[in-house]
Amino acid sequence: MAIRRAESGEYLVLVLRGDFRGGGESFAELRRAGHEALATSPLLALDCARVTFLDSQTLGLLVELLRSAQARGGSLLLFNAGARVRRWFELSGLDRIFQLLDAGQTPAALRPAPPPEARRRLLDAVDVERLVAELRQALGEAGPDGAPAAPGPAEQRTLGEIDRLLSSPGAENS
User: Fold this and answer.
1) pLDDT-derived band of residue 56, with 50, 70 and 90 as boundaries?
2) Inter-axis angle of helices 128-139 and 83-92, nearest 10
3) Does the model's pTM come out above 0.85?
4) Cβ atoms 170, 121 nearer than 8 A
5) Would you say residue 17 lies in a domain?
6) Looking at CB atoms within 10 Å, which of 7, 21, 78, 93 has the fewest?
7) Three-state DSSP state, 89
8) What is the largest CA-CA distance in the chain?
9) Contacts of 151 (CB under 8 A, 6+ apart)
10) Long-range contacts formed by 94-97: CB under 8 A, 24+ apart
11) Closest CA to 45 of 17, 13, 4
């Protein structure tokens, strides 16, 4: 099993392990476990210490879970994310939407707060299917080390596409 449940302060935690690829068994398990967890608690945290790979479909699923958490008045955050996982979030621009805790931080130390209105508006403007398609096209499949296969110029192209997807009227920073 690639996912284990735990608790940290007011947050329900899903401890993730391994590769998460759209269409794979662990992806389906994450979708099921994420929605089950949010039915129990609107405060969800993902422990990514043992995640070796996330693909663009998985990033889309995380946006879906974040929207579900916010619809219930809660939030979704990630912690213990290694450099590889953080890189996928940075390249996609999703690091501006998700709360990624710094090394050593745990959800137990946080007092849950609603996301800033600007972040919520950005999330509402995301077309998840288009986001996944743009990420796949710009970043390609991961290399043997799990890093994006399209370094360099593709990163700027990707960020431009993601900025267009995330932009919406009235999405100025508050």
Assistant:
1) confident
2) 110
3) no
4) yes
5) yes
6) 7
7) helix
8) 43
9) none
10) 94/59, 94/62, 94/63, 94/162, 96/122, 96/166, 97/63, 97/66, 97/122, 97/123, 97/126, 97/166
11) 13
- Residue 37 CA, chain-centre distance (Å), reads 16
**Domain coverage including residue 97:** 3-166
Cβ atoms of residues 28 and 42 within 8 Å:
no
Cα–Cα distance between 14 and 73 in angstroms, integer? Answer: 19
Contact yes or no for 27/59 (Cβ under 8 A): no
pLDDT digits 0-9 by tens, 6-33 = 888 889 999 999 999 888 899 999 999 9
Q: Is residue 172 part of a domain?
A: no
CATH number at residue 108: 3.30.750.24
CA 114 to chain centroid, in Å, comes to 17
**Is 174 part of any domain?**
no
DSSP 103-165: TT--GGGPPP-PPPHHHHHHHHT--HHHHHHHHHHHH-SB-TTSSBS--THHHHHHHHHHHHH
